[in-house]
Amino acid sequence: MQGIKDFFSWIWEYVSIFFSWIWGYISDLWIWGYVYNWLLNDVGIRIDVIVDYFPLFMKGTLYTLGISISAILIGCVLGLFIAFGRLSPFSIIRLPFIWYITFFRGTPLLVQIFIIYLGVAPLFISGAGTTKAVISAIIGLSLNSAAYLAEIYRAGIQSIDKGQVEAGRSLGMNKVQTMWYIVLPQSIKRMIPPFGNEFITLVKDSSLASAIAAPEILYWARAVNTRFFITWEPFILISLIYLVITLSLTYLLNYIEKRWNIDDNR
Predict the structure, then answer these.
(1) Helix or strand or coil: residue 71?
(2) pTM of the full structure
(3) Are 232 and 240 contacting, i.e. CB atoms less than 8 angstroms apart?
(4) CA distance linking residue 50 with residue 12, whole number of Å
């Protein structure tokens, strides 16, 4: 637990130095003073509040990215395991995984996060600090995402023609080797679009972590709104930040998909 907190502190230290340098450079530009006064005095936008809280918004962005990436990685591994259980020919093995998927897909994510934060996390983490909130958010998002990713894995695996499996078995491969070397490489290429949708959804769903006081982007927007009674400035800012993150992820996944298609056509 302490290692996770130290990791975020280490990242924030170096990112703070970077953004301080960038912000100092922008502040030295002669046009910045005119833009600042125009927005504050003529337009009525509280740019002064945004400037003061901008480092905290950037810190919240780091927490959002850290929570999202951790949940994606854990969800991918757990989802693959659940998908294999879901595909088991034995009902006694298959049923628990079906119940898992049904529960996490059929109940609100916010409720799941509260159950973990208030019911499960206190068994392992004392107090109500940032570490407890962040870990609870990661666990909640991971478990929820794994249920959806498991169905994506299952659909992708079942989309591969059975002749591919039979060809692998005829070459002397066992079931594990056939799945690892033949089925999964082909099915993953078909999973990229639904994977991308799930990853983007997870990034946006990470905003629910603010409900348990995890200091991600929405947490700081709500803090500004509560203290200064302004709505447009903080929420439009975090909307733009989320838009940048999701668009970057979309372009990255599109690049990977096109890259794999080019390799297949060679």
Answers:
(1) helix
(2) 0.82
(3) no
(4) 19
